[in-house]
Amino acid sequence: MPLDFTLLAVAITGVSFSAPLVASTAAPALAIAFWRNAMATAALSPFALIRGRNRLELRRMGRRAVLLSLAAGAVLALHFGLWLPSLSMTSVASSTALCTTTPIWTTIFLRLRGHRPPKLVWAGTLLAMVGVVILTGVDLSLSSRALAGDALALGAGVAAAAYVLLGAEVRRTVSTTAYTYVCYAMTAVVLLAVCLGSGSALGGYSGATWMKLVALTVAAQLLGHSLLNRVVRGLGPSTTSTAILLETPGAALIAAVWLGQMPPVAAYPALGVILTGLALVVLSDRRS
C-alpha cells in the first residue's frame, strides 16, 4: 500500500506536466494526443513483444481481457478527442472543472454496477470537486459555442471515468505492461484515424516541438497514465480517480515554476480541500 501511494504521487506529478507541455507545444491538439500514445506504444514494444514473460502473457490474454483493453483504449481516445477541442471553445477554467468530474462519474458507474459506495466516498468526492471549483471558478457564459465546449469537457470526464473502471477490471488479471500496451496501441490507432479524417498535421514540426512531444510521452503517458494503471489494482478506482483531481493544482504549480505563470491565490486552499476530500475517500476504501 505505501508503494502504491508513492507511485500514485509520481503518476499525478507526471500527468500534471500534461497541460503546461501541451500549451507550449506548437502542434495540433489531436496530433499531440496521437503522438503521445504512439510514442508510448513504441517505447513499450521491446518490453511487451521481446521480453519472454510479457510476450507470453500477451499471447495468453483471454478474449474478455483483450476486448476490455481495446475498449479502454477507444474510451481514452474519446477522452482526448472531446477534451482537447473543448479548450478552444470554452474557458480553460470551465473545461478543466467539467473534465475533472471523473470521480463523480466513477462513483455513479460503480453504483450502477451494483456496488454501494460508502457515504464517506460520496462526501470525499464532492469535497474534492469543491476544491477544483475553488481553483478554476465557474464560467457563466451562455454562448452556444461555450456551451458546446462545456458539453465536450463533461463528456471527456465521463470517458475518463469509464477508462479508469475498465482498466481496474482488466488489471485484476493482467499485468500493467500487457494492459497498457494494448490500450495505448488502440488509442493511437483511433486518434490516427481522427487526425487523418480531420486533416490535423502529423509532421513538419520543429526539433523543439518533437522534444516536447517526447517529454510529454515520458512524463504524462509513461509515468502518468501507466503508473495510474499500475496502482488502480491496489488502491481501487474511487481513490485513483479522486487523486487525478490533484492534476489541476499540480499543473498550476508546474506552470508557475516552469513558465513563470504564478498560480492564483485560490490554488493553495484549493489544494488543501482536494487533499482533504481524497483523504476521506482513501479512509473509506481502507475501512471497506
Compact overview of the structure:
The protein is mainly alpha-helical and 288 residues long.
Quickly count the helices: 14
The value of Rg in angstroms is 18 Å
For the sheet with most strands, the description reads: none
Number of strands: 0
Number of domains: 1
Instruction: Describe the global form.
Output: globular
Give helix % range. Answer: over 70%
Low-confidence stretches: none
Strand content: under 5%
| SSE topology string | HHHHHHHHHHHHHH
Q: Which structural class should the secondary elements be placed in?
A: mainly alpha
Measure the end-to-end span.
Answer: 15 Å
| Chain-averaged pLDDT | 85
Family: Belongs to the EamA transporter family.
Keywords: Membrane, Transmembrane, Transmembrane helix
InterPro entries: EamA_dom, EmrE-like
Protein name: DMT family transporter
Could you walk me through the main structural features you see in this protein, from its secondary elements to its overall organization?
With 288 residues, the chain is mostly helical. It has one domain. The protein is 81% helix and 0% strand. The protein contains 14 helices and no strands. It has helices at 2-16, 18-23, 29-50, 52-60, 63-86, 92-99, 102-112, 119-136, 144-170, 176-198, 207-235, 237-243, 247-258, 267-287. Helix 1 (2-16) packs across helix 13 and helix 8 runs antiparallel to helix 14 (267-287). The longest helix is centred in the C-terminal third of the chain and has 29 residues, at 207-235. The chain starts with a helix and ends with a helix. This is DMT family transporter. Residues 6-136, 148-282 form the EamA domain. Pfam families: EamA.
